[in-house]
Design goal:
heterodimer; A: alpha+beta; 2 domains; six-stranded mixed barrel; four-stranded antiparallel sheet; 10 strands; 55% helix; B: alpha/beta; six-stranded mixed sheet; 34% helix; 29% strand; binds adenosine-5'-triphosphate; binds magnesium ion
């Protein structure tokens, strides 16, 4: 039998049976809608997590906060010695301002930027900026977003002004002339504002003692603000390992790192996939049962017709082909109907979400989604019908013609 | 060329009971002749026709088409015989209820490789016209009278121009005028060298036949005219 005749015949019998296909379309639509919901959700979660990973150069950073004792210098040195650690330093911050003056003596008309200074050593500088620099006491490295602001360049000399306290209630501003040794791209850390400049620790100590009215050695003694550290792994692949060792050794230090968050998201996406997958598979099994019984009833009504065409000379293979084509037509329509309903449902959901000022769902249906939906539909249809098609095509002609 | 039945028996089991429908049927059917089979209701005529048209099988005995013992044929070969060399006019017409007269008549052509699909329409309409049913081509069987359905069934059997035609009471439901149209068509076919086997109660059909067999309780005998 020619394929064209086959399709024509299958199409006409499909149309004549279309009422009976309702339940098939309904169950398949449920399967496909649930599948696509799961797929869209998991994909958007995955996409957001992936963008986070690729956008993030901060994956080597681990921030640690001790919630009981201060972290000692010995501990810091131990951490520095952990394999995979490139650098580690106390997270300390002090507010100050960069001031640009047209003339050293003219106080009027200056420009200034409020910044936060973080003390670092050579090793830290290399880890953070990739620059091989030794900062002098009067050198600073500035966040690159200030580059060219008010003429700031490498080598520009500016004033760093900071608070100097006379007593608990009164103070003034002091300033020190510094040179911009370079610019760097600041990593995004929870504890860092986005205006961090890197300074030598002696400069930092000067500013800190001025603020607290204590000598630098007193501050060290008091282990002031040594409760937080920043650890930089030498490679992203080592971040987890370093974090693992840290967790094991220093139970009182709470860790926070971007990679942890970024990895949590694919796990979430996977969870959606797994749960959604289980639901979809159960729905497929359910629809196989529904479809095979629906198709069984439908074919029972057609036994007489099939008996006639067999008597006319259609071979078992012709009948089988005919029925497979019919199932294929049903499956194709089911794909269109179910994808259409899915799309409508998404549009509807968007209308509802928009009314409540919630974010909108993406309305794109990807090619792989269509491919998967088609695959699932055909798989379900064929699984549900192959047995009954085989049985029906081998019917006993005389018997079915007699029972008219 | 002949159709030959040798000691053909057909038994069925019904409610654990063996029913002998045909016992030791021996007959020869020649091509170029009209062969009539008569017999009372329930004597096994339809069963015999089913065996000859290869939609049923013998319980014992042999059936030869030409020199070939068809018991050696598989289902595909039997289907090939049905689609390419024979047609059946069923006692109950067996039209496909969801298809129009036209599409019913077209059915055999869907599996006939000798006929181009472009020629189909003309052939189908010709066959319908021959039986005076052209004006009913778009009707579904349920909207036709019994006699009209019978003529559609005959048009379907003739559309293929088969070498062998098995007709089970083909004129049971039609008037004299149509009966003679049908019988003339059959006679033309026989004269072209085809075999026409007709199960009938009609005297007119017997008059058109070259040979008449009578079935009685599953046993066959030739009626000498
Ligand atoms: N599958 C079957 N099971 C039980 N009995 C059967 C079966 N097939 C045929 N018979 C019986 O065999 C007998 C012959 O049936 P068949 O249909 O061949 O008769 P027929 O000569 O064509 O009768 P009619 O003239 O009424 O059409 C009948 O008595 C019928 O009941
Ligand atoms: Mg009969």
């Amino acid at each position: 039998m020619k394929i064209r005749d086959n399709i024509e015949y299958g199409g006409s019998s499909f149309l004549s049976q279309i009422r009976h296909n309702k339940s098939i379309f309904i169950v398949l639509s449920i399967v496909i809608i649930v599948f696509n919901m799961t797929y869209s959700l998991a994909m958007s979660v995955k996409a957001s997590s992936e963008s986070e990973i690729t956008d993030n150069q901060n994956l080597c950073y681990i921030e640690g906060t001790s919630y009981s004792d201060a972290i000692t210098t010995d501990t810091l040195n131990e951490i520095r010695a952990i394999e995979g650690v490139k650098s580690a330093f106390f997270h300390r911050l002090i507010s100050c301002a960069i001031e640009i003056k047209a003339d050293d003596d003219v106080k009027e008309g200056f420009m200034g930027y409020q910044v936060s200074a973080v003390p670092v050593d050579k090793r830290d500088i290399e880890a953070i900026t990739g620059l091989q620099l030794v900062l002098g006491e009067n050198d600073i490295i500035v966040n690159e977003s200030y580059h060219d602001e008010g003429g700031l360049q490498t080598g520009t000399e500016v004033f760093l002004s900071y608070n100097y306290s006379y007593n608990e209630y009164t103070g003034t501003r002091k300033e020190v002339k510094v040179r911009i040794a370079g610019f760097y791209k600041q990593p995004v850390l929870n504890a860092w504002p986005d205006d961090v400049i890197l300074v030598d620790s002696s400069l930092f100590d000067t500013m800190q003692s001025a603020l607290y009215m204590l000598s630098a050695s007193d501050i060290k003694e008091a282990q002031m603000d040594q409760t937080a550290i920043v650890i930089i792994a030498d490679d992203v692949s080592n971040t987890n390992k370093v974090a693992g060792i840290m967790k094991e050794r220093y139970e009182t230090i709470r860790l926070n790192y971007a990679l942890k968050a970024a990895e949590g998201l694919p796990v979430f996406a996977q969870a959606i996939f797994v749960v959604g997958g289980i639901i979809v598979i159960s729905l497929i099994i359910m629809s196989v049962v529904v479809i095979s019984s629906t198709m069984g009833n439908m074919l029972k009504n057609r036994l007489h017709e099939i008996g006639i065409i067999r008597a006319i000379g259609f071979k078992v293979a012709d009948v089988r082909q005919l029925l497979i084509i019919e199932v294929t037509i049903i499956a194709l329509s089911a794909v269109c109907i179910s994808m259409g309903s899915f799309y409508l449902l998404m549009v509807l959901l968007n209308v509802i979400l928009a009314k409540q000022d919630l974010f909108l769902l993406a309305l794109e249906i990807s090619g792989s989604q269509i491919l998967w939906s088609t695959g699932i539909t055909f798989f379900t249809m064929y699984i549900a019908t192959f047995k009954i098609i085989g049985k029906t095509s081998k019917l006993n002609i005389v018997e079915v013609l007699r029972y008219e | 060329m002949k159709l030959i039945l040798r000691d053909v028996c057909k038994d069925v089991t019904f409610n654990d009971q063996r029913i002998h429908i045909l016992t030791n049927v021996n007959m020869e059917i020649r091509y170029g002749e009209i062969t009539a089979i008569i017999g009372s209701s329930g004597s096994g005529k339809t069963t015999l026709l089913n065996i000859m048209s290869l939609i049923d099988r013998v319980s014992s005995g042999n059936y030869y088409i030409g020199d070939v013992n068809v018991s050696s044929w598989d289902d595909n070969q039997k289907s090939e015989f049905r689609r390419a060399y024979s047609s059946i006019v069923f006692q109950q017409y067996n039209l496909v209820s969801r298809l129009s007269s036209y599409d019913n008549v077209k059915l055999p052509l869907l599996v006939n490789r000798r006929i181009n699909s472009s020629d189909r329409r003309a052939i189908v309409l010709e066959s319908l016209k021959r039986l005076g049913m052209e004006h009913r081509k778009d009707h579904k069987p349920s909207t036709l009278s019994g006699g009209e359905q019978q003529r559609i069934a005959i048009a379907r059997a003739l559309v293929n121009n088969p070498a062998t035609i098995f007709a089970d009471e083909p004129t049971g439901n039609v008037d004299k005028g149509n009966e003679s149209i049908i019988l003339k068509a059959f006679r033309d076919m026989a004269e072209e060298g085809r075999a026409v086997i007709i199960v009938t109660h009609s005297e007119t059909v017997r008059d058109y036949s070259n040979k008449v067999f009578r079935l009685k309780h599953g046993e066959i005998s030739e009626v000498v005219q």
